[in-house]
Amino acid sequence: MKISSRRCARASINVKQDRATSSSPFFYVARARANELDIPIDIQVARFTFLTGCLKLSKRNEVACIHEPPVQPAIEDVWRNVATSLGIAPWQLDEPIWIVGSKLCTWKNCAPCPVKDLRDKNFDIKIQGNKIYWE
User: Fold this and answer.
1) Using CA atoms, how far apart are residues 41 and 46, in angstroms rounded to an integer?
2) pTM
3) Positive or negative torsion for Cα 66, 68, 69, 75
4) Across-strand partners of 128?
5) Whole-number Å distance between alpha carbons of 85 and 88
6) What structural domains does the chain harbor?
């Protein structure tokens, strides 16, 4: 039996549309639990968190992975506390942090940074791949 790609594309679109409708039980469960989602940790979020001084490495010769304990849970905890104080879900901080981390923190360009007056500049760390360490 041969299935045309046109038919498959239409079927996948229908599945996606059904899940997004408010009549779907998936919609109600996802909406009710959305505030429980943490910020996804990637290199941009980690860079912003450490360069602004929200978190600091405790040892000079330490090399840590941003996706493993103790670093990942510490980053999630920082942004969960911030989100709670702002009255929003932690995942809602992802986009603004990612934009600043990728466009400004990558180049250590603090002049246009929206949080430059609130942060403790911490340029002694280096993030390469998924590893973070002192320079």
Assistant:
1) 7
2) 0.74
3) positive
4) 131
5) 8
6) 1-35 (no CATH), 37-134 (1.10.1670)
The pairing of beta strand 63-65 with beta strand 125-128:
unpaired
What is the distance between the alpha carbons of residues 96 and 52, in angstroms, rounded to a whole number? 14
Distances (CA, A) of 29 to 12, 25, 26, 125: 21, 6, 5, 40
Q: What is the tens place of the pLDDT at every residue in 59-73?
A: 777 889 999 999 999
pLDDT (tens digit per residue) in 29-80: 666 677 778 999 999 999 999 999 899 887 777 889 999 999 999 999 999 9
Q: Residue 128: phi, psi to the nearest 5?
A: -135, 120
Looking from the CA of 69 toward its CB, the CA atoms found within 13 Å total 0
Split at pLDDT 50, 70, 90, the class of 28 is low
